[in-house]
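User: Can you recover a sequence for this backbone? Please restate the input before giving your answer.

Assistant: Of course. Working from this structure:
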Protein backbone atom coordinates (compact mmCIF):
# COMPACT_ATOMS: atom_id res chain seq x y z
CA UNK A 1 0.00 0.00 0.00
CA UNK A 2 1.25 3.43 -0.82
CA UNK A 3 0.97 6.31 1.60
CA UNK A 4 -1.15 8.01 -1.04
CA UNK A 5 -3.95 5.50 -0.47
CA UNK A 6 -3.91 5.93 3.29
CA UNK A 7 -4.07 9.72 2.81
CA UNK A 8 -6.96 9.42 0.35
CA UNK A 9 -8.92 7.27 2.80
CA UNK A 10 -8.27 9.78 5.58
CA UNK A 11 -9.32 12.73 3.41
CA UNK A 12 -12.47 10.95 2.29
CA UNK A 13 -13.33 10.39 5.93
CA UNK A 14 -12.84 14.11 6.58
CA UNK A 15 -10.96 16.91 4.76
CA UNK A 16 -8.01 18.14 6.80
CA UNK A 17 -5.00 20.40 6.93
CA UNK A 18 -1.62 18.68 6.73
CA UNK A 19 -1.19 19.14 10.47
CA UNK A 20 -4.63 17.68 11.21
CA UNK A 21 -3.92 14.79 8.87
CA UNK A 22 -0.61 14.07 10.59
CA UNK A 23 -2.36 14.10 13.99
CA UNK A 24 -4.99 11.67 12.71
CA UNK A 25 -2.20 9.40 11.49
CA UNK A 26 -0.66 9.56 14.94
CA UNK A 27 -4.00 8.88 16.61
CA UNK A 28 -5.85 6.37 14.46
CA UNK A 29 -4.51 5.62 10.99
CA UNK A 30 -1.13 4.99 12.60
CA UNK A 31 -2.65 1.82 14.04
CA UNK A 32 -1.96 0.20 10.69
CA UNK A 33 0.08 2.67 8.60
CA UNK A 34 2.74 4.99 9.97
CA UNK A 35 4.09 8.13 8.36
CA UNK A 36 6.07 11.11 9.57
CA UNK A 37 4.68 14.61 9.25
CA UNK A 38 7.33 15.33 6.60
CA UNK A 39 6.31 12.27 4.56
CA UNK A 40 2.65 13.31 4.69
CA UNK A 41 3.38 16.87 3.51
CA UNK A 42 5.69 15.64 0.75
CA UNK A 43 3.11 13.14 -0.52
CA UNK A 44 0.29 15.73 -0.33
CA UNK A 45 2.30 18.01 -2.63
CA UNK A 46 2.88 15.16 -5.09
CA UNK A 47 -0.80 14.18 -4.95
CA UNK A 48 -1.78 17.79 -5.61
CA UNK A 49 0.51 17.89 -8.65
CA UNK A 50 -1.11 14.66 -9.88
CA UNK A 51 -4.61 16.13 -9.36
CA UNK A 52 -5.54 13.56 -6.69
CA UNK A 53 -6.18 16.19 -4.00
CA UNK A 54 -7.13 19.83 -3.88
CA UNK A 55 -6.46 22.39 -1.19
CA UNK A 56 -8.35 25.47 -0.10
CA UNK A 57 -6.89 28.28 1.96
CA UNK A 58 -8.57 28.63 5.34
CA UNK A 59 -8.02 31.83 7.30
CA UNK A 60 -7.12 31.61 10.96
CA UNK A 61 -7.35 34.44 13.42
CA UNK A 62 -3.93 35.41 14.75
CA UNK A 63 -2.15 32.66 12.81
CA UNK A 64 -1.11 32.08 9.22
CA UNK A 65 -3.73 30.65 6.88
CA UNK A 66 -3.78 26.89 6.57
CA UNK A 67 -4.51 24.63 3.61
CA UNK A 68 -7.38 22.16 3.98
CA UNK A 69 -6.94 19.17 1.71
CA UNK A 70 -9.74 17.15 0.07
CA UNK A 71 -9.78 14.16 -2.25
CA UNK A 72 -10.40 15.17 -5.88
CA UNK A 73 -12.21 13.00 -8.46
CA UNK A 74 -8.94 11.60 -9.92
CA UNK A 75 -7.90 10.64 -6.37
CA UNK A 76 -11.23 8.91 -5.78
CA UNK A 77 -10.75 7.03 -9.06
CA UNK A 78 -7.21 5.99 -8.07
CA UNK A 79 -8.50 4.75 -4.72
CA UNK A 80 -11.33 2.82 -6.39
CA UNK A 81 -8.83 1.17 -8.74
CA UNK A 82 -6.56 0.30 -5.81
CA UNK A 83 -9.49 -1.18 -3.85
CA UNK A 84 -10.05 -3.66 -6.72
CA UNK A 85 -6.41 -4.78 -6.82
CA UNK A 86 -5.45 -7.99 -4.98
CA UNK A 87 -3.47 -7.72 -1.76
CA UNK A 88 -0.41 -9.89 -1.25
CA UNK A 89 0.45 -11.12 2.25
CA UNK A 90 3.24 -9.05 3.76
CA UNK A 91 6.63 -10.60 4.36
CA UNK A 92 7.34 -10.58 8.07
CA UNK A 93 10.70 -9.39 9.34
CA UNK A 94 10.85 -9.70 13.09
CA UNK A 95 14.21 -8.97 14.69
CA UNK A 96 13.07 -10.08 18.15
CA UNK A 97 12.05 -13.51 16.79
CA UNK A 98 15.55 -13.99 15.36
CA UNK A 99 17.07 -12.99 18.71
CA UNK A 100 14.82 -15.50 20.48
CA UNK A 101 16.01 -18.27 18.17
CA UNK A 102 19.58 -17.10 18.70
CA UNK A 103 19.12 -17.51 22.46
CA UNK A 104 19.66 -21.24 21.91
CA UNK A 105 23.33 -20.35 21.45
CA UNK A 106 23.59 -17.90 24.35
CA UNK A 107 24.82 -18.44 27.86
CA UNK A 108 22.54 -17.73 30.85
CA UNK A 109 23.70 -14.09 30.96
CA UNK A 110 22.79 -13.65 27.29
CA UNK A 111 19.37 -15.19 27.89
CA UNK A 112 18.86 -12.95 30.93
CA UNK A 113 19.58 -9.92 28.74
CA UNK A 114 17.04 -11.25 26.24
CA UNK A 115 14.45 -11.66 29.02
CA UNK A 116 14.91 -7.98 29.87
CA UNK A 117 14.50 -7.06 26.19
CA UNK A 118 11.36 -9.19 25.81
CA UNK A 119 9.92 -7.59 28.97
CA UNK A 120 10.61 -4.11 27.53
CA UNK A 121 9.08 -5.12 24.20
CA UNK A 122 6.06 -6.55 26.02
CA UNK A 123 5.57 -3.31 27.96
CA UNK A 124 5.53 -1.40 24.66
CA UNK A 125 2.82 -3.70 23.29
CA UNK A 126 0.85 -3.43 26.52
CA UNK A 127 0.89 0.36 26.13
CA UNK A 128 -0.29 0.08 22.50
CA UNK A 129 -3.13 -2.23 23.55
CA UNK A 130 -4.14 0.21 26.29
CA UNK A 131 -4.23 3.06 23.72
CA UNK A 132 -6.31 0.96 21.33
CA UNK A 133 -8.78 0.01 24.05
CA UNK A 134 -9.06 3.65 25.19
CA UNK A 135 -9.61 4.70 21.57
CA UNK A 136 -12.27 2.04 21.19
CA UNK A 137 -14.13 3.30 24.27
CA UNK A 138 -13.79 6.90 23.05
CA UNK A 139 -14.55 6.44 19.35
CA UNK A 140 -16.99 3.51 19.34
CA UNK A 141 -19.22 3.79 22.41
CA UNK A 142 -22.14 2.15 20.55
CA UNK A 143 -21.00 -1.09 18.91
CA UNK A 144 -24.44 -1.48 17.30
CA UNK A 145 -24.04 1.77 15.31
CA UNK A 146 -25.20 0.88 11.76
CA UNK A 147 -22.98 3.49 10.07
CA UNK A 148 -20.82 1.62 7.53
CA UNK A 149 -17.84 3.95 7.93
CA UNK A 150 -17.84 3.55 11.72
CA UNK A 151 -18.31 -0.22 11.41
CA UNK A 152 -15.34 -0.54 9.06
CA UNK A 153 -13.14 1.74 11.17
CA UNK A 154 -14.08 -0.28 14.24
CA UNK A 155 -13.34 -3.64 12.60
CA UNK A 156 -9.83 -2.39 11.73
CA UNK A 157 -9.32 -1.29 15.33
CA UNK A 158 -10.60 -4.65 16.60
CA UNK A 159 -8.00 -6.30 14.37
CA UNK A 160 -5.31 -4.17 16.01
CA UNK A 161 -6.61 -5.09 19.46
CA UNK A 162 -6.63 -8.80 18.57
CA UNK A 163 -3.10 -8.52 17.15
CA UNK A 164 -1.75 -6.83 20.29
CA UNK A 165 -3.41 -9.45 22.50
CA UNK A 166 -1.87 -12.21 20.35
CA UNK A 167 1.58 -10.61 20.59
CA UNK A 168 1.26 -10.28 24.37
CA UNK A 169 0.24 -13.94 24.72
CA UNK A 170 3.20 -14.97 22.53
CA UNK A 171 5.60 -12.81 24.55
CA UNK A 172 4.31 -14.38 27.77
CA UNK A 173 5.06 -17.78 26.22
CA UNK A 174 8.54 -16.61 25.18
CA UNK A 175 9.27 -15.34 28.71
CA UNK A 176 8.09 -18.59 30.30
CA UNK A 177 10.23 -20.61 27.88
CA UNK A 178 13.34 -18.49 28.46
CA UNK A 179 12.91 -18.69 32.23
CA UNK A 180 12.39 -22.46 32.08
CA UNK A 181 15.69 -22.89 30.22
CA UNK A 182 17.68 -21.47 33.10
CA UNK A 183 15.85 -23.21 35.95
CA UNK A 184 18.02 -25.75 37.69
CA UNK A 185 17.02 -29.30 36.82
CA UNK A 186 16.36 -31.62 39.77
Amino acid sequence: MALEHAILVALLEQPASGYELARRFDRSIGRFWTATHQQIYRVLKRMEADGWVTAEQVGQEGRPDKRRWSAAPPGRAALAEWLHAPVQPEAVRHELAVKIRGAAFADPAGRAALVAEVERYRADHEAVLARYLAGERRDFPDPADPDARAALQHVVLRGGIAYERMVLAWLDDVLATLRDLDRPTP
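That completes the design. The longest helix spans residues 148-181.
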